[in-house]
Amino acid sequence: MLRAVMLRRGLLLWVSRVGGLLVLLCCSLSLLYVMRCSPPYSNDPPLSHILPHAGSNHPNLGGTRPETGAGAAGVGGAGPAHSGGPPSAHSYQVLLQEREEQHRLHISSLKKQIAQLKEALQERSQQLKGVQESLKRANGGPAEGQEGGAASQGGGVGEAHGAKSQPADLQEFLKAQLSKAEVTSGIRLPSEYAVVPFESFTLQRVYQLEMGLTRHPEEKPVRKDKREELGEVLETALHSLNTPSSEQDRRSAAENAQASKVYTPSDFIEGITRTEKDKGTLYELTFRGESSNEFRRLVLFRPFGPLLKVTNERVDTTNVLINIIVPLSRRTDKFKQFMHNFREANFKNYTLMQLDEEFSRGRGLDIGARAWKGGNVLLFFCDVDIYFTADFLNTCRLNAQAGKKVFYPVLFSQYNPSVIYGSPDRVPAVEQQLVIKKDTGFWRDFGFGMTCQYRSDFLNIGGFDIDIKGWGGEDVHLYRKYLHSNLLVVRAPSRGLFHLWHEKQCADELPPDQYRMCMQSKAMNEASHGQLGMLFFRHEIEAHLRKQKLQQNSNAKKT
Fold first, then answer.
1. Which residues form a coiled coil (predicted)?
2. Structural domains of the chain, count
3. Of 146, 163, 312, 394, which is least packed with CB atoms within 10 Å of its CB?
């Protein structure tokens, strides 16, 4: 019953807001129409008193104009025929006709807009009426039009039916979503891998299982949408606890008004939530009750609506050029391997730009981006230890759009092949190492150096901070610039983009804290958790294997 009341209130509030917004917009356009179409107030004399006399220099009707260049005679150019003579009556008629035609077209456009707004407002009003009638029927009361008999069921029945059926159908769909989800009962699952786990949360923290490499098992809800989601859930729960939901509850609350508890956020203990991607999000919240051993638990469900088609477009990438820009300092062996991959991806043309200065990754990429003079082009900022496929380049083309979208792929970072395959002698060719598995690498979700964007967007955003020297820092700076702009940042794993493993050196000159961080990063890139554990316990494992071998030999001798 509580969920039904909340749903009805939400629908009524949404429809009334939309209707009010359309009414306000319609009134604003009507006022604009009146203001534009009414004659403007002016202290100037009427047109008949300002007609130019012979020899006048009216800027629109013959005479001289302060412009340079040649023109037709009599239109402000250098022609001698009528350069200073009086304008004819035909010129005034042409001017007045042009002004009249402009006003007529403008008035016609405003009338069309007002008619469209009126039509939309009428449609929203019918929808609101349908929602109200469906709510009345749900509460057992008669709907409008049923009390007056058959006389009120004439020509408007067919028009109102569609508006009434839409909210009712939506309500039925949302109720069906609730019945399908695992809310009141479980469903049979094929294995332990099919379980959708819950996350737990308090007022200040979220405790989560799916962390990746940048999230923590316990953290504050950093993302704004997550904070607002949990805040709305807590607010709805408190409102439900403090507002009686039925007539019986209202009477009991009135009788025990002095003794009843008013729930506040401090009474919230914890909650759990999970999302079934095709059904909705479930929330279970626990509050302190009237006594130490009493609790109040609320279950809320946010159903997902039906799918809506947003766009259906054809994208042709045939003529979309990509400029791959790679900063390089030494590392000739990696560059040779990169150029082999470069040719494998059907690239033929390249340009080497040599700089005689201290190396800066950001400055190198910035110079490469600005060096292109062939118009707006798609840029792919890359590094020499990156392997990409031809399919990735199409992904780059599809996910970047000038003035609208930039693409920040999450690449798959390779572990040390010598650890993966047991020894350096067993390591296969690079192409055979590009396997996306738990023991071969990880999604490098903390890196932002590889990106696809159009040159115009890169220049408009301000480019790299070229004051940053060496490697690191410039990519995050550029990434934040895009996040602070109106461009859509597409961040997604890319199955055709790999970071090839290379040994990481931690210099002895580093301070202790930085050296420790460097070694942690080196360990993270070296192998998986399980593989590092096997390396750590390798002596214990080898001793166990020796004992097993001795045991087998002794058993063989006895037999």
1. none
2. 3
3. 312
Inside any domain, residue 196: yes
Question: Which structural domain, as residue segments, surrounds residue 510?
Answer: 505-551
Q: φ, ψ for residue 389 (rounded to 5)?
A: -105, 165
Task: Decide if pLDDT at 397 tops 90.
Answer: yes
Same domain, 311 and 329: no
**Cβ neighbours of 359 (radius 10 Å):** 14
Put residue 63 in one of left, alpha, beta given phi > 0 → left and psi -120 to 50 → alpha. Answer: left
In a domain, 57, yes or no: no
**What tens digit of pLDDT does each residue of 168-180 get?**
777 788 778 888 8
| Region 11-15 average pLDDT | 71
pLDDT over 80 at 79, yes or no: no
Are 285 and 359 within one domain?
Answer: no
Q: Is the pLDDT of residue 53 over 50?
A: no
Q: Is residue 469 part of a domain?
A: yes
Which residue is associated with the tokens 């798609």?
378
Comparing CA positions, the residue from 522, 496, 499 lying closest to residue 385 is 499
Distance CA 200, CA 108 (A): 59
Mode of pairing for the β-strands spanning 378-381 and 451-454:
antiparallel
Q: How far is residue 187's CA from residue 199's CA, in Å, rounded to a whole number?
A: 19
Of 504, 521, 540, the last residue of a domain is 504
Q: The pTM is what?
A: 0.60
Give the closest residue to 164 by CA, choosing from 23, 1, 11, 22. 11
Distance between alpha carbon 503 and the CA centroid of its chain, in Å?
A: 36
